[in-house]
């Protein structure tokens, strides 16, 4: 029996036809298996109210079945072709050991160069420093943030660094790396598409730092007398002591000190020391055909990121208990020696470790001393907003409510990153 016929009979029954419905007439229906038997039973006779409830239940189930069976819209033809091209390009037979996969950056002098998109002429040079740990691989952890800056026609030099308790040493090292990379670009040691070496020396220089990178940018403005940026954007400034910045730091030291002798006496450590750097590189070369989505640069970034943890644990095992200089010393240094004339403080509404308000009070007399300007803005987001990635989640054949919530959260997070980049770029515009 067709569903339409069953609906008509149910409607007639609800409208007040006969007091009972002969179930033997309902020869088959998948939702009501008890109706499949031709035999009548007195227990199968239902009142009008019971049939009314069955009718509404059937209607709801039928509507749900139609929504589940509905297919998502077919992607455009060009999107399908794009996927085919990407799949063919990423196949192992099309990738050699020297192939660069999905990479639009270059490395020089231990820095990463990001040219403007579409090979347009850059309007300014930005020195970018990321946060602790994640700042070792900015091409991965800040890729979406950096790409948005590149869309604004900025040439970006990102300086990776390993996390350390010596902030002054880290600031000097990062600044020297940046200057070497900039000089290499000016001298033409590296060709960047769309970037003329003769124009780089005339570009205005800005700086952006996030979290611990913001602190390093401010220390650079205190330590050096020249080659400082024209303006600096400080995102989620953090100058907390180690006990607050690193969870369970006080308990980490004794545990590491106890484990260090065990690790030192381990035969695995002796075996690892026998592996030279060249041997490790050969291992990465051998693994490259197995991992066609990654190139040598990506594997090097992964290596740099992993190598930080043993270095930090080694310092902790040796009794390191606080950053150098201490947070109080950093604040005094910034108040008396900070020389970058224009500074933008970027604070997010949900950020428990942000200290922008504290550093604002310290920078106000410093700006009066150098005759500069200080601006603070508060944006939607949290401490890791600059690290949000544009991850394109693939939905299944059925678009579920979970997909809708996920898409909404993704859109909100990406909009916060875009708002951050737009606000910084608009503030930079006044100094071009």
TrEMBL record:
InterPro entries: DUF1350. Keywords: Membrane, Transmembrane, Transmembrane helix. It comes from the Eukaryota. Pfam families: DUF1350. The chain crosses the membrane at residues 124-145. This is Uncharacterized protein. It comes from Ceratopteris richardii (Triangle waterfern).
């Amino acid at each position: 029996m067709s569903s339409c016929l069953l609906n008509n009979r149910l409607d007639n029954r609800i409208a007040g036809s006969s007091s009972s419905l002969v179930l033997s007439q309902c020869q088959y229906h998948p939702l009501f298996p008890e109706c499949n038997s031709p035999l009548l039973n007195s227990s199968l006779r239902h009142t009008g109210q019971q049939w009314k409830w069955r009718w509404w239940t059937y209607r709801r189930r039928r509507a749900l079945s139609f929504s589940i069976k509905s297919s998502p819209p077919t992607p455009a033809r060009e999107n399908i072709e794009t996927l085919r091209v990407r799949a063919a390009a990423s196949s192992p037979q099309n990738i050699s050991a020297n192939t660069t996969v999905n990479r639009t950056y270059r490395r020089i002098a231990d820095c990463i160069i990001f040219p403007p998109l579409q090979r347009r002429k850059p309007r300014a040079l930005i020195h970018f420093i990321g946060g602790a740990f994640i700042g070792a691989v900015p091409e991965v952890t800040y890729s979406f943030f950096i790409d948005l800056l590149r869309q604004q026609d900025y040439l970006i030099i990102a300086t990776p660094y390993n996390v350390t308790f010596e902030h002054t040493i880290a600031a000097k090292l990062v600044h020297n790396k940046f200057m070497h990379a900039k000089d290499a670009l000016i001298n033409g040691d590296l060709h960047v598409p769309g970037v003329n070496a003769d124009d780089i020396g005339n570009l205005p220089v800005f700086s952006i730092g996030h979290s611990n990178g913001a602190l390093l940018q401010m220390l650079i403005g205190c330590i050096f007398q020249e080659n400082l940026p024209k303006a600096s954007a400080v995102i989620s400034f953090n100058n907390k002591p180690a006990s607050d910045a690193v969870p369970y730091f006080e308990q980490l030291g004794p545990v590491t000190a106890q484990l260090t002798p065990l690790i030192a006496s381990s035969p695995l450590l002796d075996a690892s020391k026998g592996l030279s750097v060249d041997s490790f590189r050969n291992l990465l070369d051998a693994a490259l055909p197995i991992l066609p989505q990654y190139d040598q640069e990506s594997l090097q970034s992964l290596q740099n990121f992993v190598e930080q943890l043993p270095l930090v644990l080694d310092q902790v095992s040796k009794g390191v208990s606080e950053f150098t200089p201490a947070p109080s010393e950093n604040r005094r240094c910034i108040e008396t020696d900070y020389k970058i004339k224009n500074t933008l403080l970027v604070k997010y509404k949900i950020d428990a470790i942000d200290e922008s308000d504290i550093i604002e009070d310290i920078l106000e007399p410093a700006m009066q001393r150098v005759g500069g300007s200080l601006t603070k803005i508060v944006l939607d987001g949290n401490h890791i907003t600059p690290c949000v990635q544009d991850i394109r989640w693939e939905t299944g054949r059925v678009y579920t409510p979970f997909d809708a919530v996920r898409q909404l959260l993704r859109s909100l997070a990406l909009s916060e990153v875009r708002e951050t980049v737009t606000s910084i770029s608009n503030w930079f515009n006044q100094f071009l």
